[in-house]
Amino acid sequence: MRVFIAEKPTVARAIAAVMPGPQKRHKTYIQSGDANVVVWCAGHILTQYMPEDYDPRYKRWSEADLPIIPAEWRMNVAPRTKDLYQTIKKFVGQAALIVHAGDPDREGQLLVDEVLDQLGNQVPVKRLLVSDLNAVAVKRALGKLEDNIAYEGLRDAALGRSRADWLYGLNLTRLYTVKGRSDGHSGVLSVGRVQTPVLGLVVRRDREIEAFVSKPFFELTADLTAETGTFTAKWVPGSRHEQFQDEEGRITNRTAVEKLARALQGSEGAIENVKTQHKRESPPLPFSLPELQKAASKGRGFSPKKTLSVAQSLYEKHQVLTYPRSDCPYLPVDHWSEGGVVRDAIVQSIGNRHALYPLTEQVNLVHRGRCWNDDKVSAHHAIIPTSKWAPLDSLSLDERWLYEIVAHRYLLQFCIDREFDQTDVVAKVDTPEGNESFKARGVVETQAGWRQYRNVLASRRRPEEEKTEEEKETTFLPPLQHGDAIHCTSTQLLEKQTTPPKHFTEATLLDAMTSIARYVSDPKIKKVLRETDGLGTPATQAGIIDILYKRGYLEKQRKSVISTALGREMIDVLPEEVTLPDMTAHWEMQLAQIAEGSGALDPFIIRVINQVTEITASEMAKGNFTVSPRLAESKPKTRKKPVDKTYPCPGAECSGRLRRIKGKKGYFWGCTNYREGCRETRPDNRGKPADTAGKSAGRRSDQNVVAVGQTCPMCKKGKIQQRVLKNGENAGKPFHGCSNFPKCRYFAWSEKVEARASAS
Question: What residues act catalytically?
Fold first, then answer.
């Protein structure tokens, strides 16, 4: 018997669906014929021992017991998953072959492996990597089973992170909590290997902003005329003006710039250098989870956690996206041949009137972009649409939007590169004190390629991309050659103000976590981390930010992520090394090496133990610290949402409620069953629905009820169909609707149509 162990029930059902033989579904497993059984976990079935599990004396938190280092790591079966564990244990004991079907990432590898280790399994184990729950994809994956031992690096990396977090977070949290209690505080002072450096990033950024003093600086541009035309160029300050420059090379002396501007008026000069390069620009790569989270935060204000949740729903529930917990923006080469099938699924989903449809018509399925690269794909690939389609109307608004931007990014991979000629010009203009340098850049697009489609979704709230730095820095250039004479016809002095760094947003904080090398002080570590950086993993980063919110260390002000007084004081009482990303970034580098097979678990854990021991000893020697009461007692500020008053919908046979809605012309009242077809509205009368119906009042079930197959009485174009409501209180109830939906909103309850037919 083959026993498949999936990470979650949805994956288990997808695997069982392609198995031969009759299926028998049970509470904790699926039997497929006599040869295959599919069981599943529910996340981690096992949890690590807590200190008191090792020794009851650890129930009492004491400095004398620190650091707590397990002599042998042990696991407990989580109470909520005992039934699942017993089921797995039963069938592992009967198996001739076990197929590991955890998600294709570190945690997915660990959560199945740790169960098999706990059971002392001796049966051969194969690895099934499923990133797409469609039947075709699952069958293809089943044909590519590998030995599970090839993925022990992923398992050890996840195990290393779990044990490091236990050693670091548990010991330091106990240490600082005990030290705080000695000063009269009763709260828990939480410290985390990843969360604390992330908090440190935000605190330092906020304080840098607060301490910032804006200063004026000045820029100078000149209109230069050659025989072939006029162009604008920017002054490049030289050594003569060095005394007037700040540390970033900006001119801070207005008088000096004004003097130069006067001297340049009417001056002559010549073109010193002209360099033209032909360049190509490839489309942006498909989405990884961090990039998708950043795009969703920028475009719709989604939190990282919400983006992951919506993407997970599109993957598991609707099966229209591939596995979302991916840090990889590349695709396997063998996926390239499936481009036509995926494109067709996108077309079926969006219809021929969607903003993306023209792009689906123009893509070149023969073109293979840089995203298809086996060398850059690890256990999982980029997030892309699957070959399964679902009407956009069947998705929530959030799901629809996320699917659209993922589909858009995927379709761009079949577009040719943008090509352009970039010309950089250096001009010298004479003044009584010597010549001054001016630079200008011009771009002539020779082939638009993918760029002509980059903003096709811009009308949907916000463009996916904004104007690039290249576009901001370019200007029109006439034909120019080295030595061409030029004349300065005018100058423009621009006064600007230095600006502080911007507060982190969730998008930029995610970017900082995935590009932590920029914030590491050690140049050796910085150099190494350029390739293997990151605080946390794509699957955990959203949760880390959420934890900092819940603990009251961070708060959100509009889109900005701000440190609270609680968070700042927490950073102040901790040693600097704990609040900086250097150490934990170095750990992430080592974990990446373990995952790739170039590092080992045991040496890593020994190094972590040594570091935790050193920090603990050092902090104990310092004695107690003073913390303000609010540090231990503060709770995160929560803004209570006002409870909206609703009223029963007066529409015929409608179970919905009228709620107050702000429209373009003010407030009005509309039914919560709008998506189910109710068009009942009322004008607003001092915060209550008026007695008189609005312009669009009237439920379609009140009038013109017709049978299936007849012409729609509303639009006169579509045909009446019977459907079933998917959402709301009336989910599962049949109704009659128009085939021209959503253009036509005809609606009638099926039972009413049948009743009228019987009566006649």
Answer: 323
